[in-house]
Amino acid sequence: MPISLFNQFDRLVFLDVETTGIDCKADEIIELAALVVVPDGQSYRMDDEMGALISLSEGKKLPDEITKLTGLTEQMLLDMGEPKDLVCRKFAELLDVPKTLVVAYNAQFDLRFLYFFLKAHHSAHVLQHIKMLDALTIYKDRRDYPHKLSDAISAYGLASENTHRAIDDTKATMELLAAMAQEKDDLAQYINLFGFNPKYGVSGPKISSIKYTPQSYKREKRLYEYE
Fold this sequence. Notes:
Blueprint: E1 11-19, E2 29-40, E3 43-53, H1 64-70, H2 74-80, H3 84-95, E4 100-104, H4 107-120, E5 131-134, H5 135-140, H6 149-155, H7 166-183, E6 193-196, E7 211-214
Parallel strand pairs: 1-4, 4-5, 6-7
Antiparallel strand pairs: 1-2, 2-3
């Protein structure tokens, strides 16, 4: 684990969401997971873990392609899904701690869904002072295309799998960040810095605290080295 990050933060919260689609305003989160990591001497340890299936809104359907991708079904969400307000409250409490760094793979996707989820239940304020780290941006500076989480897992020979289930992908992101830090511990340079494909632009609404920088596949220099 990148011990240097613990010079600035008391805890890292790895998160992942599974959703009904890609539109953060029209679609919704169906599974949310978080893994809290804290320093432990010269190493680290997992301090807390949260995973929840979330009930669909009334009249909302789960597309077949999402079931094929995640293995989740409408019946599973009906039987095991927790109420949105309950999950929101638990997750807001988990985030609402000083000196927290949120980490995700393709964080722009997860965080914009998370914002609208929290906003709907009057809890978006917990994101105001939180710093963010995108593991995908770092990975793009380390390896050539393709850049899916499964590609990163393979490139670093990790034991985890990219199952498209939130808790599994959260644990995979934690392992990946540790592997990338061992390779080159410059991760603090990427805090609140997200790369984007210059051909397509930033995906979805921008996060006000984030600096967005075009990120070429050529990898001529690190993203944080561009002015």
